[in-house]
Specification:
Blueprint: H1 2-17, H2 21-32, H3 37-43, H4 50-90, H5 108-122, E1 126-127, E2 133-134, H6 136-139, E3 170-171, H7 176-185, E4 190-199, E5 210-220, H8 225-239, E6 247-254, E7 257-270, E8 273-276, E9 281-291, H9 293-298, E10 307-314, H10 315-323, H11 336-342
Parallel strand pairs: 1-4
Antiparallel strand pairs: 2-3, 4-5, 5-10, 6-7, 7-8, 7-9, 9-10
Helix pairs in contact: 1-4, 2-4, 5-10
């Protein structure tokens, strides 16, 4: 009995004096391990007569529990102390000056979006924005897209769950919805560009489910295709930072413009690289045309009084073309190495006077 009480006192005293986790673990093994002092005493119960064992066993169990609890408590305290010491050692002094080298980078998509809006803002266009979640009227009907058009099908459009009245909202498939919102909410004349995210159910090397577009819209009483050509010519020269860019317009079809055209620029293909501005090849970069009279009617405008033009292009693709980025999917990989290579210094804000892509 005295041996048990003495051992408990000694072990508790040793536990209280331990200052690190390794020493505590050694003490635990020496007391509670297979060959530990308490374990040896527990095995000795089998050699006692029943009367003695009945008296000693509860005390040994109490000793084992007390020592085990004391070790657990000491372990928790040492863990907390170690964590506090580590946090103290690894703390960041926020009063220190910033590192001299620029660490962050502007994503190419953000940079190109700023470049394009800077160009059109310099021509007198306003920047318009709208919601990513749209209704069927703004996304399809008002843009003269008929009910049987393939773009309305599930394989191309992300629809939200159907409402009680049978209608369904959707993720906008183009930024043209903002053109509709602008014409419905404001009186002409309109001169806007619309950058933003769009969504379509498609994914490969040149398509992603979420991508970026920018569209332009001019509505007044005198605009014509010649004005459209002039605006796009000035844009291409400014964006590609060239003195001249040779363009051609090919007849095409879009439900929301009539006549419609696709615009190509002259270029040279050399392996995996494209050189814009010279050569014998052509590259299509955008679609455009005069606003369809039915679109004007859907927005409450009289086609006999108003007319205008519109165009649209993919920001992701034109960024790939200008900066030689081979795979569209890399835009969304969140790879810091890629961003460090293709990204832009935050303070190099694109301006027409200072340069777009310094």
């Amino acid at each position: 009995m005295q041996d048990i009480e003495k051992l408990e006192q000694e072990l508790l005293e040793e536990i209280g004096n331990v200052t690190d986790l390794d020493a505590l673990e050694s003490l635990r093994i020496s007391a509670l391990g297979k060959k530990g002092s308490i374990s040896v005493m527990m095995r000795g119960l089998g050699q006692m007569d029943p009367t003695e064992r009945q008296e000693v066993a509860p005390k040994l169990n109490k000793l084992k529990t007390t020592v085990g609890n004391a070790i657990d408590e000491a372990k928790s305290g040492l863990h907390a102390a170690a964590l506090d010491a580590k946090l103290l050692q690894e703390k960041i002094d926020i009063t220190l000056p910033a590192r001299p080298e620029p660490m962050g980078r502007i994503h190419p998509i953000s940079q190109v979006m700023d470049e394009i809006t800077e160009i059109f803002a310099g021509m007198g266009f306003n920047i318009a924005e709208g919601p990513d979640i749209e209704n069927d009227f703004n996304n399809f009907t008002a843009l003269n897209i008929p009910p049987e058009h393939p773009a309305r099908q599930m394989h191309d459009t992300f629809y939200l769950p159907e409402k009680e009245d049978g209608s369904r909202q959707l993720l906008r498939t183009h930024t043209s919805t903002v053109q509709i919102r602008t014409m419905l909410s404001q009186k002409p004349p309109h001169r806007i560009v619309v950058p933003g995210r769009t969504f379509r159910s498609d994914s490969d090397q040149t398509h992603t489910p979420m991508f970026h577009q920018i569209e332009g819209l001019v509505i007044d009483k005198i605009s014509h295709m010649g004005h459209l050509k002039g605006v796009l010519a000035e844009f291409c020269k400014a964006f590609f930072e060239l003195e001249e860019v040779t363009m051609r317009f090919r007849p095409s079809y879009f439900p929301f413009t009539e006549p419609s055209a696709e615009m190509d620029i002259r270029c040279t293909f050399a392996g995996d690289h494209v050189k814009v501005g010279e050569g014998d090849d052509w590259l299509e970069i955008l679609g455009c045309g005069m606003v369809n009279p039915r679109v004007l009617e859907h927005c409450g405008l009289d086609p006999a009084e108003y007319q205008g033009f519109a165009w649209g292009m993919g920001i992701d693709r034109i960024a790939m073309l200008k900066y030689g980025i081979p795979d569209l999917r890399a835009f969304f990989d969140s790879d810091l190495r890629w961003l460090k290579h293709y990204g832009f210094v935050p303070l190099d804000v694109p301006t027409l006077g200072g340069g777009l892509s310094r």
